[in-house]
Design brief:
It contains 14 helices and 18 strands. With 484 residues, it is of the alpha+beta class.
């Protein structure tokens, strides 16, 4: 082909789009040498870099119940007998934040005037999300990069495990991050922006979930309880530093690891009560609407000082050393090159024509580059994701063969009108095939199976990129080449 014919193909908007996306993807990947090593912006999972993973089991239960008593009284008696935090998560479902066997709970339920109807170890999705927020908050505060926290939630909405992956962190550091509590402190403003210590977080005995006060309003906040010692310290500090008599000029500041996480004056009602008595039950208002709700969720985490609302035990763990991660990277590159070579040889033996083989391999490589460019923003590459890339490589060639066989007529390219009809029919076949792949992979994306989600996501993206971008471009390229 001469230069004019090549330019004519490149000017086609579908071909030009592929070229532009490849260039943008290379820029996003940003391959460059740093400290004598080839470095990119690609994010790698623990399979391909040094790091630690912990899979932790929740020591709690989600149970069904039935009782003829008022539910609030039944739950109160149950809390006293079990000495555990119990939350009603549905009309006939309770979350018990302490581990008990089924036999132990059946005995306690009978004594409280109820019946245990179902039992499953784990927590509700809402509690699992709270744990995820707490762990992510800890990890972000420590500046740890490439960290992933994934609750493993079943189809019934109950979360049994949570998995934490930390790149570049040893096993001892990982366990410290998960289990370490922060330093929580309450201080009261005095004068000239100075503050004075009132109490530490060890006197906070319980922290409630975000709630509306008054109930049914749009004002959000978090209730928490002080010990007897803490309530005395709180009252003495409020009186001593002027917060009781002039609350607006002596705000209450809450700090976590010396960082202010909440600041507000005492309410007039609370200030009046503190003049005459100690108060154990306190409520920190965070505002109204969605912003108030999000602030209350964050404040709940801060009040807990990073402590998880549910005890966990390490059910599994692992560490990937640098030597092993480098070996895995090398093997992934080798596997990709071998897959590409195998595809090229197979296509060549089918058509015996370089002018068909080269565009096929070129468009297939372009698709992989585009996928890698997108993955720099949305997906860490682990072994499962690499398997997805190789799967895309194979299925991509299958679809290109379908297009080539469909548009060729007795070894020749048909007339333009017939070519367009045949190309449309080939693309229709590919769309149906792609739809089945997407439907098959979609459950793996939606389910909390972190090790398989990357594979499914890369496969779906590859199929969608192929159907909408690279396959139509290949149809235009092959027509321009084979018509000669």
């Amino acid at each position: 082909m001469n230069s004019k014919e090549i330019i004519a193909i490149v000017k086609n908007w579908q071909v030009a789009l592929v070229i532009i996306l490849v260039v943008l993807s290379v820029i996003a990947i940003n391959p460059h040498f740093e400290d004598g090593k080839l470095t990119t912006n690609l994010q790698f999972g623990l399979d391909l870099q040094t790091g630690t993973w912990l899979q932790m089991e929740f020591k709690a239960e989600v149970v069904g119940f039935d009782t003829a008593r008022p539910v609030s009284e039944f739950i109160t008696d149950l809390q006293e007998s079990l000495d555990a935090d119990i939350y009603r998560i549905a009309d006939n479902k309770l979350e018990i934040r302490k581990y008990y066997t089924r036999d132990e709970l059946e005995t306690a339920f009978t004594a409280a005037g109820g019946t245990l109807t179902s039992y499953e170890v784990g927590v509700s999705k809402e509690t699992a999300d709270d744990v995820k927020r707490i762990l992510e908050n800890k990890i972000n505060n420590l500046g740890t990069k490439d960290a992933k926290v994934n609750p493993l939630t079943g189809l019934n909405g109950i979360t049994h495990y949570i998995r934490v992956e930390l790149a570049g962190v040893s096993m001892a550091q990982a366990k410290e991050i998960v289990g370490k509590q922060g330093k929580f402190e309450i201080r009261i403003e005095t004068t000239a922006n100075e503050t004075e210590h009132v109490l530490y977080g060890d006197v906070i005995t319980s922290v409630g979930k975000p709630s509306q006060e008054p109930p049914g309003s749009n004002n959000w906040g978090v209730a928490f309880t002080l010990s007897d010692t803490g309530s005395t310290q709180f009252r003495d500090g409020a009186i001593k530093y002027g917060a009781v008599n002039d609350p607006n000029n002596h705000k209450l500041n809450m700090l976590l690891d010396n960082k202010v996480v909440y600041s507000a004056p005492l309410s007039e009602d609370l200030a009046a009560k503190l003049r005459t008595e100690t108060i154990r039950q306190l409520y920190a208002s965070t505002g109204s609407g969605t912003a108030g709700l999000e602030a209350s969720k964050n404040l709940e985490i801060h009040l807990r000082a990073g402590a998880l609302p549910v005890d966990v035990s390490v059910a599994g763990s692992g560490f990937v050393p640098a030597a092993l991660s480098d070996y895995f990277k090398m093997m992934c590159v080798v596997a990709g090159l071998l897959a590409l070579l195998a595809v090229a040889v197979t296509v060549y033996f089918r058509y015996r024509e370089p002018s068909i083989v080269l565009p096929m391999i070129g468009i297939n490589m372009a698709e992989i580059v585009i996928l890698l460019g997108i993955s720099t923003f949305i997906q860490q590459l682990d072994l499962a994701s690499i398997a997805g890339l190789i799967a895309v490589l194979g299925t991509g060639i299958d679809q290109l063969v379908v297009i080539t066989d469909e548009v060729l007529h007795e070894g020749r390219v048909p007339s333009p009108n017939l070519y367009k009809k045949r190309l449309t029919r080939a693309l229709g076949i590919i769309v149906i095939s792609a739809s089945t792949v997407v439907i098959a992979m979609l459950p793996l994306v939606l389910m909390d199976l972190s090790s398989l989600r990357g594979f499914a996501l890369i496969t779906i993206l590859g199929v969608l990129i192929g159907v909408t971008i690279t396959r139509p471009a290949y149809g235009k390229i092959i027509m321009g080449i084979l018509s000669k």
